[in-house]
Write a structure and sequence with these properties.
Keywords: Repeat, Transferase. With 265 residues, the protein is an alpha/beta fold. The protein folds into two domains: 201 residues, UDP N-Acetylglucosamine Acyltransferase, domain 1, CATH 2.160.10; 44 residues, no CATH class. The protein has three helices and 24 strands.
Length: 265
Amino acid sequence: MPKRKNTFSSWRRGLAQRAVHAGWAWAQRTGSVTAEHPGRYRFGAMGAGTRLAFPLGTVFGEPWIHVGAHCIIGEQVTLTAGLMPDLDLGPDPILRLGDGVVLGRGSHVIADTTVTIGSDCYFGPYVYVTSTNHSYDDPHEPIGRQWPRMEPVEIGPGCWIGTGAVILPGARIGRNVVVAAGAVVRGTVPDHAVVAGAPARVVRRWTPADGWQPPLRTPPPVPIPDGVTPEQLRALSELDEETAARLAELDEKTPGGMAEPAPGS
């Protein structure tokens, strides 16, 4: 026989569930760290509009961490400066994040020596950046007891770092670089490149003379024209492919259409 549903118990469970969700949402809002509400954290600098989501990961050495404006630091992101807490690291910042940096959930940025992340860099979830690596020179000593090697890391502005990528000590990543998911980067990466693999290698690059080589396989996204309303976008999303293709062909033949700007525009 099917069990009789306990309506009162179900109602209580639903009420408790809503209360838990509401309480957690309140904790997330209240526990997030901003320049206006830093809580117990004392960062060396934090720009306007920046927010560290709650719950935070491990954070220490914050007097030597400078975070720019309008950054988004996801949940469980670790930011550390120095080998351990409560060290005096001198007068200069160790970890610098430019304006508009986004660090995805669960990412780690470990700055035992200088780590610089340029403005408008976007990290996917669980990216690992470190300026320190274990050494294993002595075959008789446990690796964890051997003194680590440290090299500065620099990531240029405008980069996209894919999910699960690892940036190793000494990496120098140029401007507007794409690091594929799961890539392991060391050494120097030129501007406007796409790197993938472990160890990462350049698989595509842009230069003023040759453009993208190898050529891109898909056309670039077309920006939404000025003046298009949300209602028009919703209507377009409901069109089938054949109708959309006919409209695009008609637009190309129409003076002043999206594909052929009107004179003076």
